[in-house]
Amino acid sequence: MCGRDTFKASWAEVRAFSAPLQIETPAEDPAPTWNRAPTQRGWAIVASEAGGAAMEMRWGLLPPWAKDTKLAYSTINARLESVAEKPAFRSAWKQRRALIPSSGYYEWMQLDAKTKQPHFVHMDGAPVMFYAGLWERRRDDAGNELLTYSVVTRDADQTVETIHDRMPLILPPTVFHDWLHGSADDAMQIAHAVPSAPLVHHPVDRAVGNVRNNGPQLIEAVSSGGLF
């Protein structure tokens, strides 16, 4: 967790649900993505003079010292319990925290030894939620700037634990400014103090397991008769 998510919100919705933090966004709305996977492009909100700025990045954090991009597959998530000490994350934790806007994510419930059922987890009554994140800047093999991000995760709350034991750390707008601009100690206090987000979930078609599938039908609930 979290290894697949969606982002279908407009920038107007992102700005509305991030107040009072002021966020600079592109003029053109982002193209919706219904099955975003690791190493694909996403958006992260980073600290700026105005408050925050949306920047397009690749999912899977790559610290400057990483010899190649393979590390990104193991750094899509950063566990809150060890984020301050892990070599891949500790520098970003101190200086480059982010907010990752998302419309919801997928998690797989283990039904039996051979069967898993995907669920779509999203905010109840809101088009967008914001994961706590980290980001890094480095050069790619061609010498171009490469921006990457990771999602901070925590133990699952009562809503999610029936599906999986981990979940993203979801932050409320009241702490956005301090998360981006405060110290690492401030960030850790925020992470342990925020209440659980009002999440809901439902089972979805197993087609979401194939990263080549991408469309609004992936988040639609399936009946109990369509699970198997």
TrEMBL record:
Domain of life: Bacteria
E.C. designation(s): 3.4.-.-
GO biological process terms held by the UniProt record: protein-DNA covalent cross-linking repair; proteolysis
Keywords carried by this UniProt record: Covalent protein-DNA linkage, DNA damage, DNA-binding, Hydrolase, Lyase, Protease
The keyword tRNA-binding is annotated on this UniProt entry: no
InterPro entries: SRAP, SRAP-like
Family according to the record: Belongs to the SOS response-associated peptidase family.
Protein name listed in UniProt: Abasic site processing protein
